[in-house]
Each structure stands twice: as structure tokens, then as C-alpha cells.
Write a structure and sequence with these properties.
The chain is an all-alpha fold and 110 residues long. The protein has 2 helices and no strands.
């Protein structure tokens, strides 16, 4: 036996304070038939997944391959942008400060 009176279980009248739980077969049928397989939201989701997958493949497959096989290799080792001079690898650029002061005695250079 239930302690709730039968008039509280009345499902014939709509809930005035809760529009979500008011069953309306006409509105529900209209909402259910509005499904399209090529919706904008579907394209956005598929595009986002595609970008994520391509990004992960690039990160874990393409970058190591690019790092292993450099595009342009220099076949003349030792010739940098400034060239080689008497101090082996440090170019002498006029008007630019150098790593070693020109007035340093030669006994302290090596």
C-alpha cells in the first residue's frame, strides 16, 4: 500500500513548471526526424579528429624522419658562414667584437 494519494500520480496534465517532461508526440517526432548525416557539427567533429590524427602522425613519425634525413647536407666540413681563417674556426669580422681580445698576449691564447 502506498502512502502517496492517487491524485499526485496524475500524468494526464502537463507539468506547468517543467517543460522538459511534458510529452508532446508532434514535437518529439519533428525533433527526431531532423537528423542529417552531413551536418555542420558532424563535419566539425570529423575535421577536428582528422587534424588531431595528422598532428600526432606528424609529431611521432614525420619529425624523426625529417631529423634523420636532412634536406641539404654540407659536403665541405669546416667551411662555415664566415669561412676558415688563421684561428681555425673563428672568423675575423672587421668592426665586430671578437671572443678573444686582440691585445691578449699569445702565451694565454692556448
Amino acid at each position: 500500500m502506498s502512502t502517496i494519494p492517487p491524485y499526485l500520480w496524475d500524468i494526464q496534465d502537463p507539468d506547468l513548471d517543467d517543460a522538459l517532461h511534458n510529452p508532446n508526440p508532434v514535437n518529439n517526432a519533428a525533433l527526431d526526424s531532423s537528423f542529417t548525416i552531413f551536418s555542420a557539427r558532424g563535419w566539425a567533429n570529423t575535421s577536428a579528429l582528422f587534424i588531431l590524427v595528422v598532428g600526432l602522425i606528424t609529431l611521432f613519425a614525420r619529425y624523426p624522419i625529417i631529423h634523420y634525413f636532412p634536406l641539404a647536407t654540407n659536403m665541405t666540413p669546416g667551411y662555415n658562414l664566415g669561412g676558415i681563417n688563421a684561428s681555425v674556426q673563428i672568423p675575423l669580422l672587421p668592426g665586430m667584437p671578437s671572443l678573444i681580445d686582440s691585445t691578449t698576449p699569445s702565451q694565454y691564447l692556448y
